[in-house]
Amino acid sequence: MISPEPASASADLRKEPRQRVLLGGKLIYGDGRFTLDCMFRNKSPGGALIKLPPGQVVPDHFQLIEFRSGMAYDCVVARRDYPLLGVRITAEHDLHEVDTAHLRHLRRLWLDGQMR
């Protein structure tokens, strides 16, 4: 489910327009030791807005997996408005094609999420 996000003052400051989405994801931090289910609320090539479960606090740097696409993202928090987080995507990884132990761990998490 994807639709253009309405224009707003904050959207005007973004380099790339975001699209509204409702996609399941998983946030990973602590060298892969901690995971947290989340939802993508909007997304662009350079960032995303994610919704966390109530009461969850996460570090400034983490990785996100988008279950539908099989993509993983290295992220930095740009804005905290709990339970919403605005994040900047600093790198992306296609989990269909993995070649390192680190990405294999993310691929396993992605495949486990697909089976639910």
Report the mean per-residue pLDDT as an integer.
87
Low-pLDDT runs = 1-12
Helix count, DSSP H or I runs of 4 or more residues: 2
Which value, in Å, is the CA radius of gyration? 14 Å
Structural class: alpha+beta
Number of strands: 7
Could you tell me how far the N terminus lies from the C terminus, measured between alpha carbons in angstroms? 19 Å
Shape: globular
Given this structure, which CATH class is correct?
Mainly Beta
CATH superfamily: predicted glycosyltransferase like domains
* Sheet with most strands: strand arrangement: 2-3-4-7-6-5
Q: How many domains comprise the coordinates?
A: 1
Helix content: 10-25%
* Relative strand content: over 45%
Largest sheet: 6 strands, antiparallel, barrel
Shape-level CATH architecture: Beta Barrel
CATH topology: Thrombin, subunit H
Order of helices and strands: EHEEEEEEH
Account of the protein in words:
The protein has a six-stranded antiparallel β-barrel with strand order 2-3-4-7-6-5. It has one domain: Thrombin, subunit H. 23% of the residues are buried. With 116 residues, the protein is α+β, with helices and mostly antiparallel strands. It has helices at residues 9-12, 101-114, and strands spanning 2-4, 19-29, 34-44, 47-51, 61-66, 71-81, 84-94. The longest helix has 14 residues, at 101-114.
Entry summary:
By secondary structure, the protein is of the alpha+beta class.
Main attributes?
116 residues, alpha+beta, Thrombin, subunit H, six-stranded antiparallel β-barrel, 2 helices, 16% helix, globular, disordered N terminus
